[in-house]
Amino acid sequence: MPHPAVTPLCAAIALASAGAAFAQSTTQSATDDPAATLDAVIVTGTRAHDRTVLESTAPIDVLSAEDIRKAAALNGELGSALQALLPSFNFPRQSNSGGADHVRAAQLRGLSPDQVLVLVNGKRRHVSALVNTDSKIGKGTTPVDFNAIPVSAVKRIEVLRDGAGAQYGSDAVAGVINIILDDAPEGGALEASFGAHHTDVKPIDRTLTDGQTTFLSGKVGTRLGDDGGFLRVGIEFKNREATNRAGFDQIPFFEEQTPDNLALAGRRNYVLGDGASKDINAWFNSELPLGATSELYLFGTWHQSDTEGANYFRYPDGVANFKSVYPNGYRPISLGENRDAALVGGVRGQWGSWDYDASVDYGRNDFTYRLRNSLNASLGPGSPTRFRTGDYAFQQTVANLDLSRGFGSGDNTHTFAAGVEFRREDYRTHAGDPASYAAGPFTDRPTGSQAGGGLTPQDEADLARDVASAYASLSSQFGEKFSTDIAARYEHYEDFGSQFTGKLAARYEFTPAFALRGAVSNNFRAPSLSQIGFESTSTGYDASGRLTTGRLLSVNNPIAQALGARSLDPETSRNFSLGFTSRIGEHFDLSLDVFRIDIDDRVALSESITGDALEQFVQDRFGVTGVQSASFFVNAADTRTEGAELVTNWRHALAGGELQLTGTYSYAKTELKRIVATPSQLSAIDPDYILFGIEESNTLTDATPRTRGQLSANWNNERWSLLARVSRHGSATRIFDFGGGFTPKQTYGAEWQLDAEAEFRITPQWQVAIGGQNLTDNYPDRSIDDIAYFGNLPYDVLSPIGSNGAYYYARVRYTF
Fold first, then answer.
1. φ and ψ of 551, to 5 deg
2. Lowest mean pLDDT, pick from 28-37, 245-254, 618-627, 673-682
3. Measuring CA to CA, which residue among 73, 192, 76, 66 is closest to residue 812?
4. Taking every pair of C-alpha atoms in the chain, what is the biggest distance, in angstroms?
5. How far apart are CA 468 and CA 499, in angstroms?
6. pLDDT of residue 292
7. How many CB atoms sit inside 10 A of residue 527's CB?
8. Cα–Cα distance, 173 to 668 (Å, whole number)
9. How do residues 133-155 score in pLDDT, each as one tens digit?
10. Hey, CA dihedral for 692, 695, 696, 698, is it positive or negative?
11. How confident is the model at residue 50 (pLDDT cuts 50, 70, 90)?
12. C-alpha distances in angstroms, 462 versus 356, 428, 459, 533?
């Protein structure tokens, strides 16, 4: 039988061949938009100054500002725009998922959110501070918050789909996303859009209109001096109302079957969807010449958001409620206060025959987690109903010095580059309100604020580390046909020691219509400070009135070490890719690349260790009573990801305008090669314990669709811009472990999505547009009864098509 990857790969090759044959019969087209084709000049993935996408030694996507602006119709979200445009990019809208309701994690090539490196103007972007411990995708990570980067600030985005640790440093396992800011020295734009979901919700047989969204943005540029300096500034305001696709409650059997509880049957007591949010984004980008050969540059972003998240309903006659406070029960609402800032300054220019770039990059994220409509039942009816459950802070400072120079002559040219980097990372957490974690006098009631007890003083973390690295690279062109990129990096982590990484990539052009390229590299990712030092505590009373404690422990905690936790090792990977590019005439181009990524020692959160034996063990060893569950981060498994990616473009003049067709396809399959984490140390506590369980295994392998394809058509003339995009999201499998051997499983089928937009230029300055996303109002498969939580959560939260249904919008734009 053929290898599982053969069928999708053959399909991709057949599609590419068919497209090439069709393109050979076409005639000359109008002038191409270089940002939308494989002929755009790139700055990511190579130190050469004149490489194009078509000439790159590794696969690179280039997305223009217009691509991003139109795809970000839903609340101006950069992450959603990238998912719409990049088949290998996944950005699920999680719900009832703790911190993931507030900071959404993204994946590239189906890998972990912390295995992709994000750059802004080529400088490393900081990650968020909030640790997602209740999510599926991105569980245990602190991902980059893509939605903290303003859409209006984007000039273009370059996505390197290849390992690049030797070129850019750790974390670049799946690839690099380089967001390049608008640098227009004059003019500006004002934009306003409004939209809403209008959808038929089958589980409740209703037509709903919700998720009303307002997006406002403005930007302007001005020249500084007479020698090419500029200042570009912008601001955005976003307001999004909540959505809800919950079903009718059937009342869980384990809740008290009292008249007041049963009276809530058939109501929508839960929420499945997006919480309300308000965002303000601001940015600037500037350059100022310093003489004839150098310039000062400064750019930055600022983000503030206030978001809401959903949580499970608490019933009137339940131990988590007092009827005098909530006579009809309650559903806690999580609140996220997210503050994010980045500032980069530097000087670049020429020093003799060398180009230099010296910069300092500072980024900081502060997140405060709150709850309202909640209760600490152990405190009794006098409990507060609003809580601050914790503060999280992460800051990063990076200093860089890069040097490069070109040499050679004629068709044999080379660019040598070298540089050093110093990075400082700081991570801190602070306890919540005492009432958010207090154990009160009502010992028959759960302790801590409902929907997430607060961080306790013993949970507080304060960690920092220094990272230093040096690199060298050589980009070479040997004649007209052969080019190479070679890079090596030495990186030293204060807490993980030293690591060498290297990369070799090459491209050979057999004919102007066909070139072969390939790359091999090794990469690594050091565990984040949060994975090393984050701790949290949940407390409660058991049936006998004893206070019990559940702990998420740092790997450095003595209790965790006694339970078998070990110091985390960095994730190490080996990347291999092979592909070809082709341009046939002036109308058709394509790239097809296959890849394999082997990752060892992937970091994940362990399953919770529970039971009386654990409690007795901790009490005997440490004198700590009541600990009935514990978990910690582990190096869980070795994985192998194999896949293929296809990008095709065809352009032709049509009906007085220009038509461009783009087809893309992505396939990525991840398998477990070896389970690294073993529970042998815990046999005396629980002989049946599994350290790395089926849910986490499923998250790494099958929870994300393996395939995604897209076909888009864009037609433009002087007045009209028409866009249609059809996407196919492949199937995915979800496995849940509810304990007691109950592990329901469901495979969700592939789904199709249709997006379209029509934009009309009233004058050269004024444009109006109407459009929609998911115009067919498609939904993922309904979850089976064992997963739908008694009818309340009818759709899976990880589906790429989402569970909000059709979205319609209108937009007006003024440029000057």
1. -125, 135
2. 28-37
3. 192
4. 88
5. 11
6. 87
7. 23
8. 14
9. 888 788 889 999 999 999 999 99
10. positive
11. low
12. 36, 5, 10, 8
pLDDT tens, position by position, 98-123: 888 999 999 999 999 999 999 999 99
Write the Ramachandran bin of 790: left for phi over 0, alpha for psi from -120 to 50, otherwise beta: left
Residue 723, C-beta contacts closer than 8 angstroms, at least 6 positions apart: 70, 712, 713, 714, 755, 756, 757, 758, 759, 771
**Residue holding tokens 């044999």?**
412
* CA-wise closest residue to 626 among 634, 639, 616: 616
Question: What token pair was written down for 554?
Answer: 């740092």
Residue type, 11: A
Question: Can you count the helices (H) and strands (E) in the chain?
Answer: 10, 34
Element (H, E) at 616: helix 612-622
232: tokens are: 């570009």
Strands 116-120 and 175-181 turn out to be parallel
pLDDT at 683: 59
CATH topology of domain 6-287+309-349+358-376+390-407+414-457+466-815: Maltoporin; Chain A (2.40.170)
Euclidean distance between CA atoms 726 and 483, whole angstroms: 36
The band of 89, judged by pLDDT with boundaries at 50, 70 and 90, is very high
Looking at residue 26, its pLDDT comes to 32
Query: Encoding tokens for residue 641?
Result: 């990801």
Tokens of 798: 């990880």
How many Å apart are CA 708 and CA 711, to the nearest integer? 11
Amino acid symbol at 634: V
What residue type is 228 in one-letter code? G
Q: Give the global pTM.
A: 0.92
